[in-house]
Amino acid sequence: DLTPLDFFLWGFLKSQANKPQSTDALKVNITQAIAQIQ
After folding, report:
1. Residue 38 confidence class, pLDDT cut points 50, 70, 90
2. Mean pLDDT of 3-31
3. Helix, strand, coil percentages, rounded to 5, for the chain
4. What residue segments make up the domains of the chain, in order of their start?
5. Any idea what DSSP says for residue 21?
6. What phi, psi does 17 have (nearest 5°)?
7. In Å, how far are 10, 13, 21, 36 from 7, measured between CA atoms?
8. Which of 2, 32, 34, 37 could form a disulfide with 6 if both were Cys (CB 3.0 to 4.6 A apart)?
9. Which residues of 16-35 are buried (b: 16+ CB within 10 A; e: fewer)?
10. Per its UniProt entry, which superkingdom is the organism in (predicted)?
11. pLDDT at position 25 over 90
């Protein structure tokens, strides 16, 4: 089941990992966005 937190996290990550140049860049963007949350 999805919770409001799941929707927040998905939206936040999507906004932070916007338009990467490659798959590796996408991974870096997601990792950095998660580090910001922690």
Report:
1. confident
2. 90
3. 75, 0, 25
4. 4-37
5. S
6. -105, 40
7. 5, 10, 25, 17
8. 2
9. ebeeeeeeeeeeebeeebee
10. Eukaryota
11. yes
| Structure tokens that stand for 34 in this block | 């998660």
Measured CA to CA, the distance from residue 36 to residue 30 in angstroms comes to 10
The pTM of the whole model exceeds 0.70: no
DSSP annotation of 17 reads: T
Token code pair at residue 26: 């996408």
d(CA 37, CA 13): 10
Amino acid at 18: N
Cα dihedral 14, 15, 17, 20 in deg (nearest 10): 110
Task: Pull the structure tokens for residue 28.
Answer: 């870096």
